[in-house]
Amino acid sequence: AAVMLVVDSRDDIGADVRTWRGYAEQRVDEATSLDLARHAAASVARALAENGDRVGLVDLARNARPLPPASGRRQLRRILHGLALVHPVGDPSPRVRPPQIPADALVYLFSTLLDDAAIQLVRTWRSLGHPVVVVDTLPVVRPPAREPYLAIAWRIIRMERQVRLDALVREGVPIVAWAGPARAEAA
Question: Measured between alpha carbons, how far is 72 from 79 in angstroms, rounded to an integer?
Answer without folding.
Answer: 11
